[in-house]
Amino acid sequence: MGQYVVRRLLQMVPVFIGATLLIFLMVNVMGDPVAGLCGDRQCDPATAAQLRKEFGLDKPVWQQYLTYMGNVFTGDFGTAFNGQEVTELMSTAFPVTMRLTIVAIVFEVVIGITLGVVTGLRRGHPVDSGVLLLTLVVISVPTFVTGLLLQLLLGVEWGWIRPSVSTAAPFDELLLPGLVLATVSLAYVTRLTRTSIAENRRSDYVRTAIAKGLPRHRVVTRHLLRNSLIPVVTFIGADIGFLMGGAIVTERIFNIHGVGYQLYQGILRQNTQTVVGFVTVLVLVFLLCNLVVDLLYAVLDPRIRYA
Amino acid sequence: MRGATHAGRAACAVVVALAATACGGGGGSTADGAAVFSSSWTDPQNPLEPANTNEVQGGKVLSMIFRGLKQYDPKTGEAKDMLAERIETPDSQNYTVTLKKGWTFSDGEKVTARSFVDAWNYGASLRNNQKNAYFFSYIQGYDKVHPAKGEQSAETMSGLKVVDDRTFTVRLTQKFSSFPDTLGYNAFVPLPRAFFDDHAGWLAKPVGNGPYAVDAYTKGSEMRLTRWGAYPGEDAARNDGVTLKVYTDNNTAYTDLMAGNLDLVDDVPAQQLGNVRGDLGDRYLNTPAGIIQTLAFPHYDKDWNKPGSAKVRKGLSRAIDREQITRTIFQGTRTPATDWTSPVLGAQGGYKKGLCGQWCEYDAAAAKKLIKEGGGLPGGQVKITYNADTGSHKLWVDAVCNSINNALDDDRACVGNPIGTFADFRSKSTTQKLSGPFRAGWQMDYPLPQNFLQPLYYTNASSNDGKWSNQEFDKLVDRANAETDVAKAVETFQRAEEVVRDNMAAIPLWYQNGSAGWSERLSNVALNPFSVPVYDQIKVG
After folding, report:
1. Average predicted confidence (pLDDT) for chain B
2. Is B179 exposed, middle or buried (0-12, 13-18, 19+ CB in 10 A)?
3. Of A226 and B498, which is predicted with more confidence?
4. Has residue B99 got a pLDDT over 90?
5. Do residues A107 and A187 touch, judged by C-beta distance below 8 A?
6. Which keywords appear in this protein's UniProt record, sorted alphabetically (chain B) (predicted)?
7. What are the pLDDT digits (tens) for B262-315?
8. What pLDDT is recorded for position B109?
9. B289-513 is classed in which CATH architecture?
10. What ranges do the domains of chain B cover?
């Protein structure tokens, strides 16, 4: 097990370097960021040159990348164009997005798995077809439509919530944005769980458990659910990384100042330091989530062993 | 379907539960009793230093916490003395500035001649990376502290001298009669010692001498400003404070206004223009701002710099139906342009309605004829370049192209050429990499005709991206700058503008309006010529 973890961690190194290099090059291809700093007017050449020098933009790209990576390993992610340290931006943005992701994941797990189990156990029942139809609708409607619609209805028409999230972004204000963010994944989790449950229901060990006379809830939770959760866990694990980086739309609609907001602004202002820094951290989150998911397999299914 | 409704009801119950808790948790920042209101904001692009702030959002804050020598009248745009008791000159080149008594910064420090001289030297110094440094370029010694190439050889400009606590002198490199009128710009405000002694601390919580003081600043999300009780000026705030909230999307700000969570938006999103009257009634404002949109041309490209090119450009200008585009696409928030300045200057200040004359009037037949006489479109097609990321430019560029194509009866005469980001667009246009007309917007720095002409059309001027050059124009501008009589200066600038017209150096499209919408709590809301709300005059309750 320990050896396996070490091997996986070592595999992350090339993935990490490759991913950051790609992002670095992509942002660089977009052109000279200094030109956009002076609005609809030309920066005077002396100031522009000075700025380029300060941000290291006057050096060749490979050298910029090496310097950047060197700094990253000492914890220095550089400075954004507005003079703020990128680490400072991260320290305000990541907690907010983390909270949003937690809310979304909780919705996925609680509602998604519950609906999945209910429908999986009653295949063909009206409940099943109803939920299936509902998930189909949810999957086919884009997030920004659900987001704007709920915002307008609950925030403006009925006045139940504030349409935008305050600066502090506490958990209770993030409930609606979290639900909106989770909707599509939630539908997938429901469908995944449903299929998996329905399949395993007919398996031998479930029949044995029932034949032993175990109570129904014990059969479902200990035997059926535990074995059916493997694909769902894979999905949710991968989803954590996806939700953290992909919350741009939701964060814009509800004015949440998280990772998506910083990334969006970074891209608009062509701020290499911000974009690469945030994406680097997201890559790390993604890799770690995948590792945790793989380790969870062993917990859920004792037959899987890592050597 | 019994099950379906059941599940649906369960989902509703969840939503209700969420909504209820969210509702309980969200205390409005507007509900704290005092006459404080909230206003939409976006994160300033640059650090909030006066000489480093070149966009409206940062300028908004500076206009609240700073007062300079002059202040532009919110209604007329006229530059009026603020901290200056008098600004005297015998020759339009040497100025003596005398300050009024009794002004201090909100931290108690006195505003002296040194506060100005130090601030201007800081702004001009190459080392400090100030993006508005060129504002000081008329002052003698600027080339030493801000050389075009190489290291700076001086720390301070030789043209600035402190005489005593309340007096300093400015020597310019050339005659510039309207120099005092430029001093209302944010780059020229005084700075307290705290700015230099504890720079990081000052940036975290800026201190100025304006009607408001910064109470708390959370970078990237919120700034709370409170009325400064001891403010010595006459334009003291008529409310207790303003909370600026950062919005990523102006649609969300508008939604928040509708829900009563926000009191003032100063940028009504284009998508809402159709229903804003119905939503807000008379709590909506749409007034001209000092912004003009033009199509600039690559005069460095020989295809656009031939004997007949001026005719082709005039033909294109006449092929654009400005009336229709401003009405249908902008819902009246733009006004068709008939000169190269802005209506906010006023007739006396240099705006001349109809200066463009027939060349800005739509006439398909005349357009066709002009372009044919000028030798046709270079390569048979014009590509209008614009940035696609902000400002919904695609909409109007497509409309302009449509108008040109219809006028010329040629489906391929004009196409849009989008560029992904503003930064990339600017880097291409400032390095002369574009080969066709491109979008050019100009927001004035100070309400003078000089500001609409010289930076854009003077040979090698800072924003002359198309590299247009015309000796006659340059001569007229020089003459107008040296002219001490305001009326004569304006007249000379207009003659220079006529040179721009006769060559159609750039096609004027429309003047942009500023817009604002506000909640029922507010009254006396107005926008100044820079399309920034006049915060200090707003009344709450």
Report:
1. 87
2. buried
3. B498
4. yes
5. no
6. Signal
7. 999 988 887 788 888 888 989 999 888 889 999 999 999 988 888 889 999 999
8. 94
9. Roll (3.10)
10. 67-199, 212-287+517-540, 289-513
Question: Residue-wise over B459-470: b if at least 16 C-beta within 10 A, else e?
Answer: eebbbbbbbbbb
**Site from B23, B202, B275 to mutate, A interface, most A CB atoms within 10 angstroms:** B23
Helices marked H in A202-271:
204-211, 216-218, 226-245, 248-253, 259-268
The residue with tokens 């809830």 is: A217
Element (H, E) at B98: strand B94-99
DSSP letter, residue B185: S
Please tell me the distance from the alpha carbon of residue B44 to that of residue B63, in angstroms, as a whole number. 14
d(CA A214, CA A205): 12
Compute φ and ψ for A269, nearest 5 degrees.
-90, 10
CA distance B493 to chain A (A): 21
Closest CA to B513 of B355, B335, B308, B249: B335
Nearest Cα neighbor of A285 from A71, A103, A101 is A101
User: Which chain A residues are closer than 8 Å to B134 by Cβ?
Assistant: 44
Q: What is the DSSP letter of B248?
A: S
Closest CA to A155 of B22, B142, B538: B22
Whether B31 shows a pLDDT value over 70: the answer reads no
Residue B332 has pLDDT above 50, yes or no: yes
The pLDDT assigned to B461 comes to 85
CA distance B203 to chain A (A): 9
pLDDT at residue B391, rounded to an integer = 66
- pTM equals 0.83
Which of the four pLDDT bands, split at 50, 70 and 90, describes residue B192? very high
Domains parsed from chain A with CATH numbers: 1-74 (no CATH), 92-304 (1.10.3720.10)
pLDDT at B468 over 60: yes
CATH code of the domain occupying B212-287+517-540 = 3.40.190.10
Range B359-364 average pLDDT: 93
What pLDDT, on a 0 to 100 scale, did the predictor assign at position B506? 94
Pick the CATH number of B67-199 from 3.40.50.720, 2.30.300.10, 3.90.76.10, 3.30.420.10: 3.90.76.10
The candidate with the shortest Cα–Cα distance to A139, out of A104, A185, A101, is A185
Which residues numbered 256-295 in B keep a CB inside 8 Å of some CB on A? Answer: 256, 258-261
Q: What is the mean pLDDT of residues B444-453?
A: 89
In B14-45, which positions are buried (b, 16+ CB within 10 angstroms) versus exposed (e)?
ebeebbebbbebbeebbeeeebbbbbbbbbbb
- CB–CB contact A164 B261 (8 Å): yes
Q: Which of A295, A281, A266, A236 is nearest to A84 (CA)?
A: A266
Query: CA B460 to CA B338: how far, in whole Å?
Result: 25
Q: Are B421 and A30 in contact (CB under 8 A)?
A: yes
Tokens representing residue A226 in the block:
């535990």
Structure tokens belonging to residue B317: 């200008």
- Inter-residue contact B270 to B316 (CB < 8 Å): no
Q: For the residues B436-444, what does the mean pLDDT come to?
A: 90
d(CA A42, CA A54): 18
3-state secondary structure of A302: coil
Closest CA to B69 of B79, B58, B56: B79
Classify the C-alpha dihedral A147-A151-A157-A158 as positive or negative: positive
Looking at CA atoms only, how far is residue B423 from chain A in angstroms?
4
- Rounded Cα gap, residues A295 and B253, in angstroms: 44
Q: How far is CA A217 from the centre of its chain?
A: 33
**Best interface-test mutation with A: which of B15, B248, B262 has the largest number of A CBs within 10 A?**
B248
Q: How far apart are CA B87 and CA B181, in angstroms?
A: 10
Average pLDDT in the A14-23 region? 87
- Over residues B59-65, the mean pLDDT reads 93
